Amino acid sequence: MRRFRNLKIQPKLTLITMLVAGVALLLVSSILAVNQHVTERSNLLDQVTTTAAILADNSAAALSFDDQASAAQTLAGLRADKGILGAAVYDRAGRRFVVLCDGCDEGELVSRGATMTPGHRFGREVLEVVAPIVAGGERIGRIYVQADLNPLRRRLWRYGAIIAVGMLTASVVAFVLSSRMLAAVTSPISHLARVVRRVAVRKNYSLRALKHSDDELGALIDGFNDMLGEIQARDHALREAHDTLEARVEERTQSLRREIAVREQVEAALRGERGFLKALIENLHAVPWEMDPDQRVCTYIGPQVERQWGWPTQRFAATGFLVECIHESDRAAFDDALRRLPQAGALELELRIRRGDGGYAYVRNLLSLGSDGRSAVRGIGIDVTAQKKLEDELRQAQKLESVGRLAAGIAHEINTPVQYVNDSCHFLRDAVADLHRLVHHYRAAVQSLAVGAAAPQDVLEELRAAEESADLGYLLDHMPSALDNALDGLQRVATIVRSMKEFAHPARKQQSHADINRAIVSTLTIARNEYKYVADVHTDLGELPPVPCYLGDLNQVILNIVVNAAHAIEDAVRGSDRRGVISVRTAVDGDAVAIAIADTGNGIPEQIRHRIFDPFFTTKEVGRGTGQGLAIAHTIVVERHRGSIEVDSRTGEGTTFTIRLPLNPPTAMEMFT
Question: How does DSSP classify residue 137?
């Protein structure tokens, strides 16, 4: 292999070309030879098998009548085929019936034919075929035929010689052509190599290689000449630079002296800046601190801690005080953060810190390791209590906005059943007055009959007239239905009021187990006026276990999505008599509960889907939406419940929001991790 690498490029390329051509020719020739061998064997087998079958058919009658002469005459026809060495016919019991053997060992032929089963077998010198002799559908004997394989071998050897001559001829032609054609490639390369050697030996960068063509080799020579030009220019520049180097060294020495003087001035200024920065940090709203992770004591804490949380700085240097100030529910997360910090390098952790007045402040801490990575933990504590309060107020304001937006609809929903009650009560009042007058007539009639002041017939006529005047039959028919209408209206009002009460579930600081299906039904009830004119609601509420959640917040999420669905359907069906569908499904999904709310609106365009949970982003007209609904829903589901909210929308078909709430919410430490 080393000798091959050291060859010149032209013989190397010629050798590679010849090797590739030789391998290709050898592979093709081998395939052709194998194909010829298989074909010849197959043809010979077909020929001998056909001959055996014909002889078996012609010998059937002779074997049936035990006519050996006829059978021998049949076999004698094989002498015309020079490739057949011999044949033998055997009766049903396997005994020799008649044998034909020209140029073969008759005993061996008979014994091999007697032991061989029907079929064929290729030997070293002969091909043997055994075929059954059948007469009347019954096997009465068999015939054995032996063919010579030497003619086949001679044909194959002749074919191989032809292939070898062809390969040799092709190799010679390939060598001649490659030698001449490769010269067009190797000559420019050889010329370039000679120029390279002269440049390397003489260090003369003014030499140039001659370009022979415009192909890749021509481009290579152009690039080499350009490189020589660049080297020549740089060599000239280097010589000029060398001439001025000593002067520049002296100049640089003087410059360094001036820089040292300036550096001393800068260091003095930096010391002043350091003091200024320290004063600036200690007057920030954020509290910087440094802690010994082993002792859990602060080796430094900004003086603003006393102004913000009411503790003097020296208290944090006492053993155990820092841990006591951390809310007991957050201490496990704090310990876990300290364990993970060496691997993470930097972490963010939110803790509740006890203030001097006994209350707690929400503090977001940015933790990092000291400069040596081991001895200290440093951080900045940012008080986010006001931010937390603002977020709660924002959620409550959005909830009140939703209630205000629904107030007119809820009033209408209550007014309709109240109208039923009102109409029914007026009817019953008039009916009672008519019945009161009719009872008065009955009492007067009874009194008249008791004292004999009037004839019974006259009293009866008077009572019939009173009943007709009061329309007693109508009253008896319609008073029960009026009572039913009044009761149904009151039940409807009670349902709406109960739904409003459940929707306005008071906010709690801790999660509680709630009936999600019942909350969904209540929310759909108070939102009915938003969708009843444009959509029908289909619910498929599965059996759910009690789910730990902030029920008031979750009611707000469901209301926001249902109202958005109603608005989307309203836009889709506007100007037509069509109605859309809002589908609400609930089910247990592994270790979570899934709530799917789907609509048949126009869908959300793909280019804005990634922004729908951004605060203040809305596609509705002014006055119809603030862009806070989905943003607050995302915050409630993802941050407060550690769940997920996903959207699947198809333009022109509708949108599905899927909310997943964990049945086993993570602990404080798990939430941090």
Answer: T
User: On the CB side of 505, how many CA atoms lie within 13 Å of its CA?
Assistant: 24
CB 310 within 8 A of CB 355: yes
DSSP string, 152-164: HHHHHHHHHHHHH
Q: Over pLDDT 90: what percentage of the chain?
A: 8
Alpha-carbon distances, residue 41 vs 81, 127, 128, 149, 164 (angstroms): 17, 10, 12, 9, 21
- Alpha carbon of 214 to those of 223, 251, 299: distances in Å? 12, 51, 76
* Separation between Cα atoms, residue 361 and residue 363, nearest integer Å: 6
Q: How confident is the prediction for the chain on average, in pLDDT?
A: 78
Amino acid at 283: N
Q: How far apart are CA 583 and CA 507, in angstroms?
A: 27
Mean pLDDT, range 357-383, rounded to an integer? 80
For 168-219, give the DSSP string.
HHHHHHHHHHHHHHHHHHHHHHHHHHHHHHHHHHH--TT--PPP--SSHHHH
From residue 509, give the alpha-carbon distance in Å to each of 349, 405, 481, 556. Answer: 20, 26, 49, 16
Q: What residues form DSSP beta bridges with 143?
A: 89, 131
Backbone φ and ψ for 497, nearest 5 degrees, come out as: -65, -40
Report, in this order, helix, strand and coil percent for the chain, each rounded to 5: 60, 20, 20
